[in-house]
Amino acid sequence: MHYLSVIMAIRFLGLFIVMPLLAVYAMHLDKANDTTVGIALGAYALSQMLLQVVFGKFSDKYGRKHILAFGLALLALGSLVCANSNDIYTLIFGRLLQGAGAIGGVVLAYLNDLATEENRAKIFARMGQFIALAFGISMIVGPTIGAKYGVNTLFDVTALLAVISIIILYLKVPNPPVVHHFKSHARVREVLTNTELLKIYFSGFMQKGMMTIIFMITPLIFVNELGWDKFELWKVYLPALIFGIFAMPLGAILAEKKQKGKLIFILSALFMVSSVVAFLMQFYVMGVILFFFGFNLLEPVLQSFTGKIARIHEKATAMSLGNSIQYSGIFLGGLVAGIIKQHYGYTALFYVILLMGAIWIGVLFSMREFRGYRIDEIENFTDEMIENFHLDENVHDVFIKDGKLIVRYFK
What we know:
Elements: H1 2-16, H2 19-27, H3 34-62, H4 64-83, H5 88-100, H6 104-114, H7 120-149, H8 151-172, E1 179-181, H9 188-191, H10 195-225, H11 234-257, H12 261-280, H13 284-309, H14 315-344, H15 346-364, E2 373-378, H16 383-391, E3 395-401, E4 404-410
Antiparallel strand pairs: 1-3, 2-4, 3-4
Helix pairs in contact: 1-7, 1-8, 2-3, 2-10, 3-4, 3-5, 3-6, 3-14, 4-5, 4-8, 6-14, 7-8, 7-11, 7-13, 10-13, 10-14, 10-15, 11-12, 11-13, 12-13, 12-15, 14-15
């Protein structure tokens, strides 16, 4: 199961590795301006957002492995297009093609298929840690390699990583078991009636949207406004990486072991919003550190809590929808940041983020603390027992896995 987390992390490393320098690189392409650069940063997220559910349905029909491999192949192809782009619109097309391999929800569903009730939370938390680690590595490797060999080399590296992921997929990842539940697959409307899931979705939207904005404005401020060389950006990202590495286990431990998930969501939002205040006060390095500390605090628990709250028949839909909403945040973050910066400047952009951040924090204070479930596994069961469990208001979920009846109760 860890190999799926490795594949997810490699994929995100390939996508993140270009982000620290992409805004500066794209600005020098033909026909580029602030708005088109913002679109280029978030373009891959647009196709991810539109195709998450489609890839999820295809994986149910044709098998998880083949659809994962197809998505990774699209990532490799889009990366090669980006590496050979000479104008901003070719770069945008390549970024859209990168994102067309919308396999995030498929990987999460695959992990859910392989997980047991006892290790599910640990597996999703570990995957979040892998992603956050990939995010941190990209902040150092991206500026270092990109400044020395060019951003197009980073796109070539992404294509190579995608091919490596396909090899790992077929050599190391087992086929999933068959799980039987008693309800039809959830519709999007059903999932959207769960107010606690909506709060998690909004957190993912804000976290990923702010990530795109930070990656857009940080290199532009340091290189274009302060006169730094691109190679020197590691001096900004290295301290952020160190603090981010510390934040990853802290978030996982407090949320999973200490059952302080609500606190982690609120703290992460406070750190990320505080980073904008630091940017307004021109404490730019501090702003980057605060943001990535808050980002990594939340990343290990975001998917885990979606999997915990959604019922078994809702999980694939809930996770695909959550990914789509996060990717919409990435795309809209880049688009809105580009438009506002081009027409109104940095200060107006910062105040818009602060307003959205205040709304986000207010929403999180209404979040319920998740205390987990009591789980019973029954080997000998009847249809009458199953029906009684469905009528019990204290039962959160009932399903059959590996020949056993699994019953989850609210604590």
